[in-house]
Amino acid sequence: MNRAPRLNIAVTALILLPTLSACVTVRPPDKPIEINLNVKIEQEVLVRLQRDVDQLIRSNPDTFPTKPQGSQ
Asked: Cα angle vertex 47, ends 42, 53, to 5°?
């Protein structure tokens, strides 16, 4: 049997294997990761505003009547 083709393939694989394994590198990012939470802040402001308006209406019942005037 002729072993030359198998030997050539084995030698070629041994030569290429180290060059292929060095292609993958992992590096951390240069800048820190930034997470934007604007949605949460907007919701918090709306809830606070709603509570303030509710307190204002309760403290001024004559200015903000709950029943239409003239009805009993």
From this structure: 125
- Residue 69's H or E segment, with its range, is none
pTM for the model stands at 0.31
Around Cβ 66, how many Cβ atoms within 10 Å?
A: 7
Concatenated DSSP letters for 14-39? HHHHHHHHTT------SS------HH
Residues 40, 47: Cα–Cα separation, whole Å:
11
Question: Residue 31 is encoded by which pair of tokens?
Answer: 């800048």
Residue 58 contacts residue 51 (beta carbons within 8 Å): no
pLDDT in tens, 6-55: 888 888 877 776 665 556 678 888 998 888 766 665 666 677 788 888 88
